[in-house]
Amino acid sequence: MIKINRQRLIENFIALVKTNSTSGNEKDISNFLKSNLENLGGKVTFDSYGNLLSFFEGKGETIILNCHLDTVHPGENIRTIQKGDRLFSDGKTILGADAKAGLAIILEILNLRKEKKINCPPLQIILTKEEESGLIGARNLDFSLVKGKYGLVFDGDFGPDNITIYAPGYYFFECSVLGKAAHAGMEPEKGVSAILGAAKLINKIPFGRIDSETTQNIGIIQGGDGTNIISNKVIFKGEIRGRNKTKLLKQIKKLKFIIEKFLSENKNIKVKLNGQIIFDPYAFSLKNKFLKKIQLAYEPIGLKPKFLPSGGGTDANIFNNKGFNLFPIGFGAYNTHTTSEYLILSEMEKTLIFCINLLKIKRR
Ligand SMILES: [Zn+2]
Questions:
Q1: Cα(335) to centroid(ligand 1), Å
Q2: Is residue 258 located within the same domain as residue 329?
């Protein structure tokens, strides 16, 4: 088994974490990675949206290594604290292991490739902006620059044995409920309460787990100006997720039908629905040829891969709906998107070793 440079892996991770990179502010981290990738022998280009693409020559079929550049809030001036095999933030910010542990792994793959002259297939590193704000970078990626068809996505929670083979599509919606304002004490008869209207409407909308593949939620509600005013506007926002596109579309249709029925029964209230499918679901069978290689690459590290569904979206949703075969892999990040996020260093190392194994199998 290959001997990795644990210290360099951790040092690179900490340097990445110390570089601020909240969504929309990826300039510093892009520059940091550009110079590192160029030093490692890669050609670096940015597409017109600012996503970073870097190509490393090799023999055979190109493998894509994808990760996102941005991190969530609170994610500035992060301080790392090591306790044994784990890295934490100081509790005031996230750690940023999502997905900077992935970026550190990619850099270490390229370091080992160069240092140990590993005969890798061609590698294309694709690092996207604003993934955390709804896969915006990937949605705007210039796909004419993408060379490979198969690859890995370094993103999210879980350990190195976790490979995502299906993930839900995601529909976002915002509903504006419009009533009529009036003084609540002097002339309540003249008002139409948007709050009451929204309450009645929300009561008809399904919540939670709809079936084994579909979930629905309303997570934000805003409205009202004072207890003495009959409110004229309420906005609520929600989502529907579905791993089955047909069922997802059916659930969206159902939402629209509920709103139409509500409007026909409440003529004095207006409702405006703004909704959009942000990304589509994907699913792979275990017969996928790249999954077979993935399985083989796990053998030397004594892990059995868990091919699992995910409840969230990653850049893989965008790629895979364009015909690519990209599989998100875990790397030891847990409690992501919270100030108690942590990284298990030995798990990050295992993902790195797995990747090296995978790149070697490609060559056989
Ligand atoms: Zn992420």
A1: 12
A2: no
CA of 16 to the centre of ligand 1 (A): 14
The CATH number of the domain holding residue 131 is 3.40.630.10
Q: Which amino acid is at 166?
A: Y
Residues 186 and 255 in one domain: yes
C-alpha 117 – ligand 1 centre gap (Å): 31
Q: Could you tell me if 58 and 123 are in contact, meaning their C-beta atoms sit under 8 angstroms apart?
A: yes
Q: How far is the CA of 98 from the centre of ligand 1 (A)?
A: 5
Ligand 1 centre distance from Cα of residue 177 (Å): 33
Dist. CA 185 → ligand 1 center (Å): 50
The domain in which residue 246 lies consists of: 169-279
Whole-number Å distance, alpha carbon 99 to ligand 1 midpoint, is 5
Query: 206 CA to middle of ligand 1, Å?
Result: 28
Determine the longest span between alpha carbons in the chain, in angstroms: 83
Q: What type of residue sits at position 174?
A: E
Distance CA 359, CA 163 (A): 16
The residue among 279, 313, 342 that closes a domain is: 279
Instruction: Please tell me whether the peptide bond between 74 and the residue prior to it is cis, using omega within 30 degrees of 0.
Output: yes
| Site of tokens 């790249």 | 290
Does residue 1 lie within any of the structural domains? Answer: no
Ligand 1 centroid, distance to 133 Cα (angstroms): 10
Among candidate residues 219, 249, 279, the one where a domain is terminated: 279
**Helical segments of the chain, H only:** 6-18, 27-39, 97-115, 136-139, 194-204, 245-265, 289-298, 315-320, 345-363
pLDDT digits (tens, 9 = 90+) for 13-36: 999 999 999 999 999 999 999 999
pTM exceeding 0.70: yes
Q: What is the pLDDT of residues 59-102, one digit of tens each?
A: 999 999 999 999 999 999 999 999 999 999 999 999 999 999 99
Q: Is the dihedral of CA 300, 304, 307, 311 positive or negative?
A: negative
Total domains present in the chain: 2
